[in-house]
Amino acid sequence: RAKSDVTRAVCYYDATMDEAARARRDLAAEMRTSLEEGHFALHYQVQTDFERGEIIGYEALLRWNHPTRGLIEPTEFVPLAEETGLILPLGEWVLRSACAEAARWDPRMSIAVNISAVQLGHIDLPRLVAEVLRDTGLAPARLELEITETAIIRNRSKALRAMEGIRALGVTVAIDDFGTGYSSLATLRTFPFDRIKLDRAFIRDLATDQQSLAIMRAVLALGRSLNIRVLAEGVETRDQLAVLQAEGCTQAQGFYFGYPSAPAQLAPAGAGPAASAAAPPAAAGGLN
Ligand code: C2E
Ligand code: MG
Ligand code: MG
Ligand code: MG
Fold first, then answer.
1. Ligand 1 atom closest to Cα of 233?
2. pLDDT score at 268
3. Tens-place pLDDT, residues 119-144
4. pTM metric for this prediction
5. Domain named EAL: which ranges (predicted)?
6. What CA–CA distance (Å, rounded) separates 154 from 147?
């Protein structure tokens, strides 16, 4: 009987869907509880100007210390947080925590915070940023917001307004994962960026792959002609650094210089990361 087969098939399909949907709903609920109970944390990864041998600052990277599953990386929960809207309170928590943390550091150190497309599209970001700066006492020039090309393209007019408002506060804006989106050149021309973060996909094979090298050169040339600094993401080896150096890139971030770490690991209490920045083994080799 065809009908019952169809019914059974539909029920089976529904059951599978239910299960996936339930898992996601559970995860979303756990995220909400974790935010209330303080199970999210920020790790910080050093950004260096290797030409001058100096630390520029740190990027805040979100971590979820799940009560039973352990540490969960943002790529596994940020998309769900965006779909459910939880990224709004979570993103505000990130901004507040990162600014409060950086306010305790050496004042030469900047702090970079990732901003989601949903935050760009749904809240008055300049107002939130102004409020957080006021509450934490962080100097605006020390804050940089990282926005991906994709996020901007998804919210063009709102993104443009938000970015102008943010920059009017004296806060800088970086375009994250540059080269992985689709309207790179037009985006750069229209939107007021202070820095380009060249995606690590182009750094990975830099020493061996001619195409990666060509793209890196093109982005550096673009940065020079538009007067925007270029920071290379995901630098892991001395060879990659040597190529970047030879091509005139001066700023980088990656495991070669330091892994993202909890604030306590960045510096002895009170000293701020600048004091210990030269100390971690990876940075010692990378900075000289
Ligand atoms: P992203 O902003 O491009 O951050 C850089 C990512 O590359 C981080 O992954 C970092 O740990 C990793 N990384 C750094 N150096 C190296 C390297 O040398 N080699 C390799 N293979 N990887 C390196 P993470 O922490 O897992 O974050 C992944 C993405 O999640 C971030 O990419 C960002 O898009 C998003 N994210 C992280 N924190 C936040 C946040 O607070 N808010 C929002 N909206 N998104 C966040
Ligand atoms: Mg980033
Ligand atoms: Mg990136
Ligand atoms: Mg990324």
1. 15
2. 46
3. 999 999 999 999 999 999 999 999 99
4. 0.90
5. 24-274
6. 11
Q: Which residues contact 105 (CB under 8 A, 6 or more apart)?
A: 111, 272, 273, 274
Ligand 1 pocket test, pick from 44, 47, 48, 61 with the greatest ligand atom count within 8 Å of Cβ, gives 61
Q: How many Cα atoms are found within 13 Å in the side-chain-facing hemisphere of 264?
A: 1
Q: Cα–Cα distance between 63 and 42 in angstroms, integer? A: 6
Cα(19) to centroid(ligand 2), Å: 33
Give the ligand at the shortest distance from the Cα of 45: 1
Write out pLDDT tens, residues 20-40.
888 889 999 999 999 999 999
Coarse DSSP helix, strand, coil percentages of the chain, rounded to the nearest 5 percent:
55, 20, 25
What are the tokens at 249? 């890139």
ipTM of the complex as predicted: 0.98
Q: And the tokens for 139?
A: 């100097």
Average pLDDT in the 70-78 region? 95
